[in-house]
Design a protein that fits this description.
Oligomer: single chain
Number of strands: 0
Helix content: 55-70%
Order of helices and strands: HHHHHHHHHH
């Protein structure tokens, strides 16, 4: 055994070129496999199936009734399209923050429909603030004032979008509740009060 350790230590102190090459190749393969597996796992957390594993009894049914899930054009926005930035670093930041939300579910804070409803307003406000702070970037990945043809919109919608563009408004200022039921607003400041789709 001592002889083996001495041989290994001698090799370790002065490895051959073949040995160095093998270590580099194995490290590269290990790195690729780790990154591929990690990325696959990360992408799985972006799927509707993953989100539904916790939200099947609260927000998933209302999302499936929304135009983001089913509409005449067949274009669908899934959970990650609206709740996760597409850019690398903002996506990671959001994933880290979202781990707190997963923890809340696992520890029983919002693990039932009743508990979820009790916290819906605070969760909605947090998401509205996030979207307002990033100028509704996730919405703008698909909807952008520059790409809108106001002449093909309903008169009221064209007027409101034109006004919003002039006033520097962002999507979430008017479109709260577009994919999910609104929480009971109670004594919420007017800056958080959404307009209904009918008012627009």
């Amino acid at each position: 055994m001592i002889q083996f350790i001495k041989k290994f230590w001698h090799w370790f102190k002065s490895p051959s070129k073949i040995g160095i090459g093998i270590v580099i190749i194995l490290s590269a393969i290990g790195g690729i496999l780790f990154w591929g597996g990690f990325n696959a796992g990360l992408e799985h957390t972006n799927t509707e199936a993953f989100c539904s594993s916790c939200h099947m009894n609260d927000v998933v049914p209302e999302y499936r009734m929304s135009p983001h899930y089913s509409n005449r054009s067949g274009v669908k926005a899934n959970c990650a399209d609206c709740h996760l930035p597409h850019e690398f670093f903002p996506k990671w930041k959001r994933k880290i923050v979202a781990s707190r939300e997963v923890f809340a579910h696992l520890t029983g804070k919002v693990d039932t429909k009743e508990k979820f409803e009790a916290h819906r307003l605070e969760m909605a406000q947090r998401e509205w603030e996030r979207m307002k702070a990033n100028d509704s970037q996730e919405c703008r990945n698909c909807h952008n004032f520059e790409d809108m043809d106001f002449t093909k919109q309903k008169t009221v919608a064209a007027k409101m979008h034109n006004l919003a563009e002039q006033q520097g408004k962002t999507c979430i200022d008017c479109h709260k509740g577009i994919a999910h039921s609104l929480p009971h607003m109670g004594n919420v400041p007017s800056s958080f009060t959404p307009k209904s789709e009918k008012e627009e």
